[in-house]
Design a protein that fits this description.
alpha/beta, 5-stranded parallel β-sheet, Rossmann fold, globular, two-stranded antiparallel sheet, 207 residues, 7 strands
Length: 207
């Protein structure tokens, strides 16, 4: 069985929802079964599609016949999800491995680490030139189905949030303002189509 499709991003960006959507569209799909902290070669050949954040580190090994789609999410929501997740998100737990992959020393402060990771990991995917499309999770399911040339006649509900109920949304002012990553993050937000509202120091809308 050939891996037809790989969807990758930072994690905390909707890969679990994408896994369910691709299953509903008829593809035998896994979530990080092949591409996790390492490549699970025993799982290669078992799946038609995979959604995996860590897969971005292995894009130079992905077969040419596999379509790669770059998945992004509003940076404030992504960082909020990582920050408020119990024991923080996966970049915090795997920081030593990520520093080796990215070739940089990541910040010590959690919010700033997630800011740097969001920028560096998304740029890693962009610079690989392996992705046929970049789509926003906020535009799914339509954007993903169109990019992958799939149809789905089922409604797929988003996964329940792992962020505790009642957790406030982040605004830009909740992030370290003296961080060198703040300008990079805002620039990426605009590149990805998230409109920044300077009056409220947040996004004009939170899809």
């Amino acid at each position: 069985m050939k891996l037809q499709l790989l969807v990758t991003g930072t994690g905390h960006c909707g890969t679990r929802y994408v896994t369910d959507l691709l299953k509903a569209a008829g593809l035998k799909t896994s979530h990080e079964a092949i591409y996790g902290a390492h490549i699970n070669r025993d799982a290669i050949g078992n799946w038609e599609a995979e959604a995996s954040g860590p897969a971005a580190a292995f894009l130079d090994t992905i077969p040419d016949h596999t379509q790669v789609i770059h998945l992004v999410r509003c940076p404030l929501r992504t960082i909020r999800s990582m920050f408020y997740r119990k024991n923080y998100g996966w970049p915090w737990r795997r920081r030593a491995q990520l520093e080796s992959i990215l070739g940089v020393k990541l910040p010590e402060e959690p919010k700033e680490l997630f800011m740097a990771f969001y920028a560096l990991w998304n740029n890693l995917i962009t610079e690989s030139k392996r992705a046929s499309h970049r789509i926003r999770i906020e535009d799914c399911p339509e954007a993903l189905l169109a990019a992958a040339n799939l149809t789905c006649n089922q409604h797929v509900a988003p996964k329940g949030s792992e962020v505790p109920r009642g957790t406030p949304f982040f605004t830009w002012t909740d992030l370290p303002q003296n961080s060198p990553w703040i300008a990079t993050l805002k620039s990426l937000a605009e590149t990805y189509g998230y409109t920044y509202d300077d009056r409220s120091s947040s996004y004009a809308s939170h899809p």
